[in-house]
Amino acid sequence: MDHRNYKLIVLLLALIAAALSEVLGEDSSEVVEPVESLTEELCSKKRNGCCSDFFMGDNPNMLKCMAIHSAKMPDADDEDVGKLMKFMSCFVECFYKKSKFIGKGDTLNMKMVKLEAETLYGERPKEKEYFVKSYEHCRTHVQTEFNLMKNTPGTKALLKNTCRPFFMYLHMCVMEYHQKYECPYFRWKPDMLSGKDASCKEARAKCYAIDGIKPPLMDML
């Protein structure tokens, strides 16, 4: 995915998320453990400065859907929230459909989520388990919240002309799961919007080595 498009999508989703929920902030005074001092236990926990960025996902269908929908992407300074909601919901619906994540009755097809986890992370069991766990949590959590809010006047206006908005809300939940709940090393990355770095890439590499696992190709570039 073009880096500028990726950055803009993250920014747009961050704007939606900020309007809908409170993301737990990081404590700027918290000590960042030196990379050489990392242990398996520390690798399973949040690393300050490495867990504030959104996780868009590793789904290969995102590239195809970006090519389809990029012309409809609103500018970052566009104040039309309805246009933003329409673009993001249709973009998410696109790669969820291509991944066969959308099941009967517009529910999440967990069978295909688990298959995707096996395909993407088959050789990295902790990531595979985490991926499935985040979707299991979000499908229940988001369904409850979405049912409560979808018929309120303000939300109905925002969701007008959107594409299966439930899946947009679901994907935002998955994107910020590591911010609110667990942030193990394979979710550590520098904050792309602030530009801050807490040796996240080096720390990730160290933790992959501790687990005896070869890092993903993108980590080695």
Automatic annotation (TrEMBL):
It comes from Drosophila albomicans (Fruit fly). Residues 1-25 form the signal peptide. The gene is LOC117566585. SUPFAM superfamilies: Insect pheromone/odorant-binding proteins (SSF47565). It is found in: Secreted. This is Uncharacterized protein LOC117566585. One of its GO terms (cellular component) is extracellular region. Coiled coil: none annotated. Gene3D superfamilies: 1.10.238.270. The lineage of its organism: Eukaryota, Metazoa, Ecdysozoa, Arthropoda, Hexapoda. It comes from the Eukaryota. Belongs to the PBP/GOBP family. InterPro entries: Odorant-binding_protein, PBP_GOBP_sf. GO terms for molecular function: odorant binding.
